[in-house]
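Async update (no meeting this week)

Hi team, since we skipped the sync, here's where things stand on the single-chain job. The sequence we agreed to prioritize is pasted below, unchanged from the tracker. I ran it this morning and attached the output directly underneath so nobody has to dig for it. Comments welcome in thread, and please keep replies under the output.
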Amino acid sequence: MYPNAPKEQTGAFAFIRVVPDEINDRFWQLVWDVIEGTRQSFFEFRFLVSRLAAGRILADELNKFGPTSSKPNRAPSCDDLRRAPDILVIVGSNHLSRARSHIENGPFARLQLQSLRTILDRELDSTPVQGIAQQIGRTRIILIPDDDGSAQSSDINEITDDTRLSEAIEKLSIFRHGFTFEMARHMLGIADAECERLLTQLSNLKCGDQDCLTLAKGAGEYLLRTRVRQPNSETAARHYSAAKAIAGFIHVDDEIMRLNYRDALSPVWLHEAQWHLRQACEASGPGHPSHRAHERLSRIAELFGWTRIRYATTRSNEDGEELLAALHEHLENVKSRGWSRIGHPIEFVLAAKFAFQLARRSKSVGLRTESLKFFELASQACAELRDKEKDASRYVIATSRACMVLTEAPNGEGLRQAADDILTANQLRPYECELLDFRWFEYMGDREHDPQRAMQEYQSGILNSNLPWLLRPRLPIVLKYMAAASEAGISPPPQLFDKIEEVRNLSQPNLGPISRTGLTGLDHVQRRWKLGRRLFLAGHQERMKESRFSTIASTPTSTGTVFI
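Output:
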C-alpha cells in the first residue's frame, strides 16, 4: 500500500491487561507508565475535581505524537521526545468498574473508563500514520471486554512423567502471565545453575504443538503455556510465595532476594504481587501472614490516593497517622496550586472517616475534632455542585456522620445527636446507591423497636440491588434480621434466605460477643442479638428451606470489541 514509505502502515501499539478486582488508581498508574505520561499530568488527572478535566488530560497525553516545545511560540523541538501509542488496547475491560453514580465528579466515578468515553471520543486525535488512520479512522482505544487468551489447564501426565518437572510446572502455574528467572528460582527454591537446567528442560517439553515454556525475547520473561490446578491445601502458601518472589521484601527469610527493586515496584509487578496476596488472603484464615503482607506492600509501594484512604477506613489495621500526615500534605499541595476546588465532598468524608477511625484506636480527642472539621469541609464543598450530585453527596455526608455518632454515643444518646442527619438521609433515600457505611442499615434497624419495621431496615443491608458492592452482608445484621423476622412471625423471602445461608456457611460456629456500638446497650438490641445467635447456631434456617424455591441464574452478557 505504501511501498516507498513502509512506516506509513506501521503503528505503535500498547497492550494492557485488566484483571479481576482491578482498582482505578492502580489501573491508571499502569496506563501512565505505558504511555510515559508526566507526573504533573497524572497528579492533575487523579485529583482535579472534574470528570471533564480528567478526560481532557488523558486525551492530551494520548495526543502527543511527536516532540513538543516547552516554550510558547516556538517550533517543536526535542524538549520532550515522548510519543504516545497510536492504539491503546485494553484487554479485559469488563473488569474495570462500571457502576453508575450520581456523583460523577467524585474520586471514583470520575476515573471510570466508561465515564470518560464520551470525552475521549471528542478529544482524541487520529493517528498521523496514514496507513493506520485509513484502516481504523479516528479509533485510538480498543476495548476487549474479556481476556480469553489464558493458558488452558492440562493433565500433567500427558506432558511428562518426570516427577521433578511435574512439580516445577505445578508451582510455576501460580504465575498467571509470566515470570522472570529470579522469580522461578525463588519459587522453586533451587540454585541458579539448577534452575537454568530445569527451565531448559521445560522449554524442550511439548504441550500439543507448542513448547511448554517459552522465553519472550527482549523482555526477559518466561511464559508457561500450560496450567496445572493448585492443590487446595497449597493455594494460600503458593500465592504468598509468588508474591514474595515478585516483590522480594514481603517477608524476612534467610535469603535476600536478588532483583531490581525498581522493577519490582513498577506498577505492573506491584499489581501482580498484590493480586497474589489477595488470593492468599481469601484462601486462608485471618491469621495468615498474607494479610499483614498485603497491607505492608500497599503502604510501601502504592501512591497516595482516595482508594487507599477508603481501604484504610474499612479494612486496614496498620495504616496510621503517617497516612493522615500524607493526607494533610496532599491537601496543602492542592491549595498551593491555586485550584478553585481543593477537594470533593466525598473526599472530605473519607478523610473524616479515617480520622475518626484513628481517634477510636488512639482515644484522641484532637482526632475526633479533626474528623468533624472534615465533615464541615464536605458540607461546604457541596455548595459548588449541581442538584443531583449535591443531593447524593449530602446523603453520603449524613449517613457517614450519623454512623460515626451512633458508633460511640451510648444507649440511644446517639439517636438524639444524629436526628438531623437521619432525617436528611431518609429524605434523600433515592441516593442510597452512594452509601459508604455498610453499618447504616444495621443502625437503622437497631433504632426500631417494632420487629417488622426493624426487619425491613436490616433487609436493606443484606439484599439490596442499589448497592452493587454489597456482595456479602455482615454477620451481626444477619443475626438481628433473623431475630426480628422470628419476632414478627415472617419467613425470609427465598433470595434473602440464600444470603443468610451463604453467611452461615462462611462463618465460624462459635460466634463471639456482640460488637460494641452506641446502640448495643438498648434492651431490644441485646434481645435480638441473643435470639439471632441462638437461631443461627441451631440451624433455624435449615427448617425454613421448605419454603424455598430455585432462583434463576443471570444470563451472561455478550462480549465484543468497543472502539473509541
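Quick observations from my side:
Residues 69-77, 543-559 have pLDDT under 50 and may be disordered.
The two ends are 25 Å apart (CA to CA).
Reply here if anything looks off.
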